């Protein structure tokens, strides 16, 4: 269990965050100088150098978005220029990528961050540039919404790259793409020009994920522990009937892959913040505010509580809570995670994602009058972040292109590099781990400096999307 008493005061983290940005800038520049984006997206490091791993190019947005975050945090103009150049040159193909569910990762991390900075007044206002970013985000949301499967209970979900039968937990965090497109007033059309409500699909996807991918200790199966998350749910694509749990990157369908858990934690925390900004009249067509908020809070609370209980004291989890080698490690939850053990890898990228989820949900709970519960999650997020900002997780070696060490991609397939004389993956980084460490550090830095609260939906437009459209 995470040692909540180890959480330091927020302001004390600033020197470590500033040290992280110093290391981060060197690595972003090194990757930009060496890596050719035309050869694919950098996914994870092998012996300290970023390499591709063909599955889908879902990490370009994290690469180019990292440069934009670096500018946001430090004001260094060269990173803004780098992020803008690479976004304009390489990201349009991702806007129209019908084969993936990752639009919130790729397009909101790039076009979205740039539009947010313009809306905040951090970069000069430019009408044409704004319209370009907005158009990219509108179309990305529409393309994501097009990947739609209807379930037998009347909801539906954005299906994963595996196909119409597959609901991934990852995708709840990419709902930010459709949420932004909705805020920009966009309403795509289906067959016979039938209007499609992007907000409706965000909410329906959130309902399906909460119902089928998150467990609540209600006896659903023999491994129903409250807050456990399944990576993938499988449906009959003909009639939308739920069939079974599954996984692509976890140990088994009945264990919890911790990065999938982290996506759920952060995805619901962000969507709760987003839903707060919408008028009651807008939400009426989709069940009403209270019903939507109750559903999202239930999923966020269960998953965050599970993370706190089933993560080592330092806030860094092992890659799967049911990984078989953990049986050889004794009371591994009662001590800090051990990235150099002989049995199972840790996954710091899951911690980077989860830390932001814990902090946002804790902040949300405290702001809505639930101080004790909110403080618990807030402190857990701080513990995880302060661990990642120090050795052996933060890489300050300029020869290593990764920022957050001991991150894994796909351990069951052994896609992760294992050092000589070791038995499990360690000492390497992933592009999403690095990006999310930067993002959570920026989130905390802005709080410390009393700067604008960091959200994905600050795009400079009020809600103007139609509310009565079909889902």
Largest sheet: 3 strands, antiparallel
The tally of structural domains comes to 1
Beta strand %: 5-15%
Radius of gyration: 21 Å
Which architecture per CATH? Alpha/alpha barrel
Low-confidence stretches: 462-471
Total strand segments: 7
Supply the CATH class: Mainly Alpha
Helix tally equals: 16
Mean pLDDT: 95
Order of helices and strands: HEEHHHHHHEEEHHHEEHHHHHH
Protein model, in words:
The structure is a single chain. The protein is mainly α and about 475 residues long. The protein has one domain (about 5-450): Glycosyltransferase (Alpha/alpha barrel). About 45% of the residues lie in helices and about 5% in strands. The chain contains 16 helices and seven strands. A three-stranded antiparallel beta sheet has the order 5-6-7, covered by helices on one side. A two-stranded antiparallel sheet has the order 1-2. Helix 13 (about 290-310) packs across helix 14 (about 350-365) and helix 14 (about 350-365) runs antiparallel to helix 15. It is globular. Residues about 460-470 have low confidence and may be disordered.
């Amino acid at each position: 269990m995470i040692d909540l008493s180890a959480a330091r005061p927020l302001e004390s983290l600033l020197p470590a965050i500033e040290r992280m940005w110093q290391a981060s800038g060197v690595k972003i520049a090194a990757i930009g100088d060496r890596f050719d984006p035309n050869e694919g997206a950098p996914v994870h490091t092998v012996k300290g150098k970023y390499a591709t791993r063909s599955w889908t190019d879902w990490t370009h947005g994290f690469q180019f978005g990292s440069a934009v975050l670096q500018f946001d945090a430090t004001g260094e103009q060269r990173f803004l220029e780098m992020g803008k150049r690479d976004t304009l040159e390489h990201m349009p193909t991702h806007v129209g990528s019908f084969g993936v569910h990752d639009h919130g990762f790729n397009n909101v991390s790039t076009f979205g961050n740039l539009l947010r900075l313009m809306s905040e007044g951090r970069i000069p206002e430019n009408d044409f540039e704004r319209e370009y970013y907005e158009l990219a985000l509108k179309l990305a949301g529409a393309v994501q919404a097009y990947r739609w499967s209807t379930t037998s209970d009347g909801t539906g979900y954005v299906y994963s790259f595996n196909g119409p039968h597959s609901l991934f937990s990852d995708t709840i965090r990419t709902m930010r793409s459709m949420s932004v497109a909705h805020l920009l007033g966009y309403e795509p059309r289906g067959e016979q020009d039938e209007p499609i409500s992007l907000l409706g699909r965000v909410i329906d996807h959130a309902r399906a994920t909460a119902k089928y991918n998150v467990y609540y200790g209600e006896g659903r199966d023999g491994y129903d522990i409250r807050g456990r998350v399944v990576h993938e749910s499988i449906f009959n694509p003909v009639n939308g009937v739920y069939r079974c749990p599954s996984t692509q990157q976890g140990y088994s369908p009945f264990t919890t892959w911790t990065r999938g858990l982290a996506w759920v934690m952060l995805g619901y925390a962000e969507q709760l913040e987003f839903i707060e900004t919408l008028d009651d009249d807008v939400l009426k067509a989709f069940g009403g505010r209270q019903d939507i908020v109750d559903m999202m809070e239930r999923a966020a609370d269960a998953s965050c509580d599970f993370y706190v209980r089933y993560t080592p004291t330092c806030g860094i989890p092992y890659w799967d809570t049911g990984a078989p080698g953990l049986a050889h490690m004794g009371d591994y939850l009662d001590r800090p995670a051990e990235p150099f053990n002989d049995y199972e890898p840790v996954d710091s990228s899951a911690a980077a994602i989860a830390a932001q989820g814990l902090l946002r949900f804790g902040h949300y709970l405290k702001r809505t009058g639930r101080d004790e519960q909110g403080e618990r999650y807030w402190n857990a997020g701080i513990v995880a972040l302060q661990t990642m900002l120090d050795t052996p997780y933060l890489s300050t070696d300029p020869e290593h292109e990764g920022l957050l060490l001991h991150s894994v991609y796909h351990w069951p397939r052994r896609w992760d590099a294992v050092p000589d004389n070791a038995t499990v993956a360690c000492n390497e980084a992933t592009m999403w781990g690095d990006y999310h460490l930067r993002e959570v550090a920026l989130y905390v830095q802005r709080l410390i400096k009393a700067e604008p609260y960091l959200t994905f939906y600050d795009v400079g437009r009020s809600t103007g999307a139609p509310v009565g459209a079909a889902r």
